């Protein structure tokens, strides 16, 4: 086995500070590793040489190369899945390789998904298929380029090992980078041990890594909770602005950092409709587009429950402060959502808030009634602000309604350039993602690379990429996503 450069240091801070949540483990061997996608700018940010990662260092991306001093671990966590509590989930097909300090001094987790069975695997095989790992690569990079906080994908490496799903598929490992992998479910797991010292260490670890200002607050653990509430309110508002449907907002898939995590059956909404659901298993629509803010609040209530022993000595007092802090979520979310909508409409700062709010509400009713394509519509408003409303108008049946709304909006003096910096031309549309993943699974990476090129610079309209800006053809039909386990 080749060794890692001596300069590559993978710390084991999580494992050292929280050994009860970290099971030392090693990745499965990979018969024939081959890089399918490598995020070179991210590699550079992490101080990793892309040439080395493609060659001798490929094992760092699959877990078969463990730098000296590193201790890969499977992380323990619990979680509410579709509302039902599972006391022991954990990394069933993932490993935390360790933490790296990046070029700007930030601590980043290097984590693998699809790296083989662990003590948390239950009935699963610990593996992942090429398609779902490339989906996470594309969608998380698109989210990053859209300015939405997210885990990042460093690479996807085909393992050469087949994976049995409904059919036999080629296997892959995703190398993921995150500011940490602490989840609401991590706190639920620690709470369930009844070890208050562990819970306190976990909270202190989270404060140090993500919300350091909380350390100076009169009540640091309450301040941590409030910081997570604020981060999630801002995050989910951003999802709504870009039309992102996470698809599986279980408490184990919600981070403490406020980064989007665990891209499974996620998708970007085409026609605007709050009831939009893509996931095959979300039959009740629990994680529908329009439900995401309410679900985030529900998940944060579960975090509050887990934190109760740290919030006050008496349970009643702890519940009272938790309820009060959780009560800030709705206002924070509304303020973030409204501010983002004003930006999407290019409204200048001085515009009356109440007038802007009515304008937004009326627009939402119009686009919903006419099933207007979310991404194309907002992008086309840039041209409308410049005096050419034809493209936007062409998306409506209710032309009188659109014209009346547009006249009101134009009187407020929208800033077209600002709109073009916030309303993307390109998002990873479902039909394009499917096309790219199908081709990649069959061995052709060209459509994937082209899609990545489009969504990595989503605001920058380029000749030759027209089809990446268009809604799915009718022949694509309705779309269903699968969990990819
Ligand atoms: P996810 O749906 O990816 O958020 O995963 C939910 C839980 O199922 C986590 O505990 C995963 O580690 C576990 N899991 C998902 N897929 C597999 C698999 N193929 N093998 C073992 N565990 C898995
Ligand atoms: Mg998960």
From TrEMBL:
It holds the Pfam family SelO. Its EC number is 2.7.7.-, 2.7.7.108. InterPro entries: SelO. It catalyses: L-seryl-[protein] + UTP = O-(5'-uridylyl)-L-seryl-[protein] + diphosphate; L-seryl-[protein] + ATP = 3-O-(5'-adenylyl)-L-seryl-[protein] + diphosphate; L-tyrosyl-[protein] + ATP = O-(5'-adenylyl)-L-tyrosyl-[protein] + diphosphate; L-threonyl-[protein] + ATP = 3-O-(5'-adenylyl)-L-threonyl-[protein] + diphosphate. The active site is at residue 252. Mg(2+) binds at residues 253, 262. Coiled coil: none annotated. ATP binds at residues 90, 92-93, 113, 125-126, 176, 183, 262. Keywords: ATP-binding, Magnesium, Manganese, Metal-binding, Nucleotide-binding, Nucleotidyltransferase, Transferase. Its cofactor is Mg(2+); Mn(2+). Nucleotidyltransferase involved in the post-translational modification of proteins. It can catalyze the addition of adenosine monophosphate (AMP) or uridine monophosphate (UMP) to a protein, resulting in modifications known as AMPylation and UMPylation. Belongs to the SELO family. PANTHER family: PROTEIN ADENYLYLTRANSFERASE SELO, MITOCHONDRIAL (PTHR32057). This is Protein nucleotidyltransferase YdiU. The lineage of its organism: Bacteria, Bacillati, Actinomycetota, Actinomycetes, Propionibacteriales.
């Amino acid at each position: 086995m080749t060794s890692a450069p001596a300069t590559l240091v993978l710390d084991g801070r999580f494992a050292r500070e929280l050994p009860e949540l970290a099971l030392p483990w090693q990745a499965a061997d990979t018969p024939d590793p081959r890089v399918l996608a490598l995020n070179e700018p991210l590699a550079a940010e992490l101080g990793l040489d892309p040439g080395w990662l493609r060659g001798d260092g490929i094992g760092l991306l699959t877990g078969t190369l463990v730098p000296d001093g590193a201790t890969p671990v499977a992380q323990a966590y619990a979680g509410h899945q579709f509302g039902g509590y599972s006391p022991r989930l954990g990394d069933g097909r993932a490993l935390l390789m360790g933490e790296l300090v990046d070029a700007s001094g930030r601590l980043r987790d290097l984590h693998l998904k699809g790296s083989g069975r662990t003590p948390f695997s239950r009935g699963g095989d610990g593996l992942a298929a090429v398609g779902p790992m490339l989906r996470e690569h594309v969608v998380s990079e698109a989210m990053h380029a859209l300015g939405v906080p997210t885990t990042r994908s460093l690479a996807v490496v085909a393992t050469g090992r087949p994976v049995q799903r409904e059919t036999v598929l080629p296997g892959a490992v995703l190398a993921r980078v995150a500011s940490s992998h602490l989840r609401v479910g991590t706190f639920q797991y620690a709470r369930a041990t009844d070890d208050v010292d562990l819970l306190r260490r976990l909270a202190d670890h989270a404060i140090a890594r993500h919300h350091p200002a909380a350390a100076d607050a009169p009540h640091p653990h309450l301040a941590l909770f409030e910081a997570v509430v604020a981060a999630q309110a801002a995050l989910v508002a951003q999802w709504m602005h870009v039309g992102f449907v996470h698809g599986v907002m279980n408490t184990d898939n919600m981070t403490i950092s406020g980064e989007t995590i665990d891209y499974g059956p996620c998708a970007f909404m085409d026609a605007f409709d709050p009831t939009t659901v893509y996931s095959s298993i979300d039959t009740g629509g629990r994680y529908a587009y329009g439900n995401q803010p309410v679900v985030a609040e529900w998940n944060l209530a579960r975090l509050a429950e887990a934190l109760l022993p740290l919030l006050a000595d008496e349970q009643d007092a702890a519940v009272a402060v938790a309820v009060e802090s959780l009560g800030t979520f709705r206002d924070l979310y509304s303020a973030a959502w409204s501010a983002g909508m004003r930006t999407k409409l290019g409204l200048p700062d001085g515009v009356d808030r109440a007038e802007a709010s009515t304008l937004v509400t009326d627009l939402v009713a119009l686009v919903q009634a006419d099933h207007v394509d979310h991404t194309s519509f907002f992008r086309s408003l840039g041209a409308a602000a410049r005096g050419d409303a034809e493209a936007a108008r062409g998306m409506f049946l209710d032309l009188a309604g659109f014209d009346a709304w547009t006249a009101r909006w134009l009187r407020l003096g929208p800033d077209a350039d600002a709109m073009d910096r916030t309303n993307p031309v390109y998002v990873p549309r479902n039909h394009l993602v499917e096309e790219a993943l199908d081709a990649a699974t069959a061995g052709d990476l060209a459509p994937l690379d082209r899609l990545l090129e489009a969504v990595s610079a989503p605001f920058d309209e380029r000749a030759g990429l027209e089809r990446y800006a268009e809604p799915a053809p009718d022949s694509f039909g309705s779309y269903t996503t699968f969990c990819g386990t």
